[in-house]
Specification:
Layout (H helix, E strand, L loop, with lengths): L1 H20 L3 H4 L4 H7 L17 H14 L6 H6 L1 E10 L4 E13 L4 E13 L5 E15 L4 E8 L6 E5 L8 E10 L4 E14 L2 E8 L7 E9 L5
Antiparallel strand pairs: 1-2, 1-10, 2-3, 3-4, 4-5, 5-6, 6-7, 7-8, 8-9, 9-10
Length: 237
């Protein structure tokens, strides 16, 4: 019954879009809202390349903005520098001691260089149920992009140590600094804290070396939790 209701609601929603724009649902869902509202025509309903929208000055201005936002630019150059295979030294910092393990990373450009997908595999030190630190298998996925509209780096991180996403956003420092600070929210279940502020600093040393640093600002403004130190595979140490 729930499936039938969902299908009926989707059908009603789709018909509403079609009646508003005379554009089929599968086309409407792929277009910016401005094009749906201002550019729907019977020609578009045939989905044939090269057919022109019914244009006006307002629509042309919107299209120019859309082209600027959707086209990779200077902010995306960093993503290309991070692509490739990497060896990682992973350091987990406690109050009085740090633990170091090894991982590897595969960074792949997606969608015409607009995003970078990173897959991390290796080992990490983590406490067991008695509080003893031990090595265990580690996997993580990081998604990094540059949002032309926000003029900000944006990303998300997921790992086998948690069941929630970490998201973050930040801006390049003025003057072309090699450090990009980003901020996001993270839960701290052991402390029963939700949405604690985290800081992630990406530092590009050169073409073969870079670092991700993770700070738990809920503990202290300079409390570093992790270092991910990257060296490009087969690069000189």
């Amino acid at each position: 019954m729930n499936n039938q209701n969902n299908n009926r609601q989707a059908s009603i929603f789709g018909m509403s879009i079609f009646r508003l724009t005379n554009t089929p649902v599968y086309v409407a869902l792929l277009l910016p809202l401005s094009l749906i509202v201002y550019g729907g025509t019977s020609d578009m309903s045939q989905n044939q390349s090269g057919q022109q929208l019914e244009v006006n000055t307002e629509l042309l201005e919107m299209l120019a903005k859309w082209q600027t936002v959707r086209t990779p630019g200077k902010g995306h150059e960093l993503l290309g520098k991070l692509a490739g295979e990497w060896d990682i030294t992973l350091r987990f910092h406690g109050r009085k001691q740090s633990w170091e393990s090894k991982c590897t990373s595969q960074c792949t450009l997606l969608h015409g260089g607009r995003f970078l997908l990173e897959q991390i595999t290796g080992e990490i030190y983590a406490p067991d149920e008695k509080g003893h630190m031990r090595l265990e298998p580690y996997t993580a996925t990081r998604f990094l992009g540059y949002d032309n509209y926000k003029k900000a780096y944006v990303g998300a991180f997921a790992e086998n140590q948690n069941t929630y996403f970490l998201t973050f956003q930040g801006h390049e420092k003025p003057g072309g600094s090699d450090q990009i600070p980003m901020f996001g929210l993270s839960d701290e279940p052991m402390l029963e804290i939700q949405d604690a502020t985290m800081k992630y600093v990406l530092s590009l040393k050169n073409n073969d070396h870079y670092v991700w640093e993770v700070y738990a600002l809920a503990v202290d403004d300079n409390y570093k939790v992790f270092d991910f130190v990257y060296t490009r595979r087969n690069a000189e140490r």
